[in-house]
Structure prediction request, 481 residues.
Amino acid sequence: MDIKQTDLLQTGFYINGSWLQNEKCYAVINPATNKKIADVASAGEQETSAAIDAATIAFKLWRKKTAKERSQVVRRWGELMMEHQHDLATIMTTEQGKPYAEALGEVGYAASFFEWFAEEGKRIYGETIPTHKPDSRILVTKEPIGVVGAITPWNFPLAMITRKAGPAIAAGCTMVLKPSEETPLSAMAMAVLAEKAGAPAGVFNVVSGNAAEIGGALMAAKSVRKISFTGSTRVGKLLMRQAADTVKKLSLELGGNAPFIVFDDADIDAAVQGAMASKFRNTGQTCVCVNRFYVQDSVYEQFTTKLAKAVSNLKVASGFEEGVTQGPLINALALEKVESHVQDAVANGGVVLVGGKNSPLGGNFYEPTVIANAHHAMRIASEETFGPVAACYRFSSEEEVLELANATESGLAAYFYSRDIGRVWRVAEGLESGIVGINEGIISTEVAPFGGVKESGLGREGSRYGIEDYVEVKYMLMGGI
Ligand code: ADP
Prediction:
């Protein structure tokens, strides 16, 4: 389908319930063709301040709605996403490149956060605490934090928005969203649907354009009480520094360097299946994608041979082609990083079992790759590749592999395959990461807490924990009773 035929295409920015344009524009590029899709109005400091003002005014009314009233808007927003799933998936594949089937999957995943948080929003319970003085009573309530600034990446153009907007808006906060400049059209489509769902003007605003200016305005504004960011560790650290001046609350979901361990007692076929799902989804461009495969000596040949065979069956093509499993990388910079990681690995003794070069399709396409004989002196061991390259390392003992797996500043996701119950407990508890997949390669779901330890971030998204990031605890002491 042509993106222009969708009902949801908007190229302005959305502030206080209105679509606004700007003479200054930037081009959104289709990563499969490197051709322009649309010119999008570019927002800066002034537009961001206007959006913050709108969200600040809207907060006063939105917080006073009943939880059920807010829930109805969030729920309807999710239903509308599903009613428009083909339009949303078309926009997503065009601007992000992922296979259409994956884009449709993401629409469902993204909408699930609205369903979930529409429910959770009704269950933000307080409590009473047995008093410390006979003539007084203690009450604890939870209140929405206020205006939330959300900054999102391009790899999941919808889900990274709903995972923040769902809990924030259900809890009574209002939001100014800055999506990635690579994928603003998906975010604009969400604003169209927010309005249709009945979100009052100012509750959900979207500005896209100059990242540093928009980010700077959000960080400087006193009325923005919380920032929720998903993206690189570099920008996350910058936001954390900037948040200090106004002491904003922060949720940060940053980079990962996920290990995937295959022990000698593992079901090797299941491990290969899990590896494929976890490494090659979204062409390796997710923050929970495996970055390091550790395989025990005695099963190393078996696992790497089977993995290479499975990888050779992947189909690299434009996201709209029938049967495609691997789309393009997001842009030329991403491609360069993948190329340089593979070159460095090969120069340091890595053996390419499959792939290892640019795709004959040209553009931003790269052949899915498996590299054997990987070791820790390679760049691929310490940097997140964010591309379709599986580097496989050997190990001999459980103690050794735990040391290796934890030898990173990141701590988002980790995976391992083993059928020994004692080992399962020891390794699951020993891994320094917020998420552990045990005999499973896909861990994302709206019902479970997603987030990292160490430099992978702060806070959790999804699940009942996800809404806690958007409320403040208030303690009331009632005396004179
Ligand atoms: P990636 O490398 O995955 O693109 P980034 O951290 O650069 O990760 O981007 C994630 C989000 O952060 C995007 O929306 C991007 O525009 C935004 N961003 C980049 N630089 C800044 C900045 N200085 N201030 C605020 N947001 C920024």
